[in-house]
Design goal:
Elements lengths: L14 H15 L19 H34 L6
Pfam family, one: DUF3311
Protein name: DUF3311 domain-containing protein
Keywords: Membrane, Transmembrane, Transmembrane helix
Length: 88
């Protein structure tokens, strides 16, 4: 009875892209807030906070980048299936 109208060709949903931006935002914004990590305490195994926080940011950025990649690629795959294209 209620059919969704066909989406115009070439138009992709914005939701996954917005989610990808939200996932990537901390990886870009946190390193820019220097007063957040410009201290020596607390230390972690003798490492000052500044250094281990930087290492934690690198790991966090990698995880968030992978998550954003998966969100976008899965969304694009779903769009291709919905549009009837073959998936790899």
């Amino acid at each position: 009875m209620t059919e969704t109208p066909p989406r115009p060709a070439g138009r992709t949903p914005r939701g996954p892209w917005i989610l990808a931006v939200v996932l990537l935002a901390p990886a870009v914004i946190l390193p820019l807030i220097v007063p957040l990590y410009d201290s020596t305490d607390p230390t972690l195994n003798g490492w000052p906070f500044y250094f281990w926080f930087q290492m934690a940011l690198i790991l966090m950025s990698g995880v968030l980048t992978i998550a954003a990649y998966l969100v976008v690629t899965r969304s694009e795959r779903r769009e291709r299936v919905r549009d009837g294209e073959r998936t790899r």
